[in-house]
Amino acid sequence: MSKQIQVVGAAILNDQNQILATQRADARVLGQQWEFPGGKIKAGETPEQALTRELEEEFSVQAQVGPAVGPTFKHEYDFGTVNLTVYYVRLASEDLRLMAHGKVVWCEQTQLGKLDWAATDRQIAELIGQEDLTQLSI
Fold it and tell me: Ranges for the Nudix hydrolase domain (predicted)?
């Protein structure tokens, strides 16, 4: 059995309900693929606490975590199985400092399918593309 990695991600929405997509830096694992920002859950953290911490570390911004996009999605990579749960998030500011990503882009729902997502994130992007984001309360 492969190593199980518990990860949280953020489907960050702006005031126009565009979604923030982040491209992994070239030198990182899965470099140049697109993902929802976030990271590993540390021992003793709830997923929401982990996501708040990760967004502070990655972008130096405060976040308000909302509901989960859907179920936890899994994908087996060479380095282990990623178990990813993505939450809808609103940020206190759109002034982001890029610490772990090479590029960010705000996407309309219809644009999500055009990016080269990491395998686990692709499943989430497809789900978000079908959601009615105007009904979200965060």
Answer: 3-130
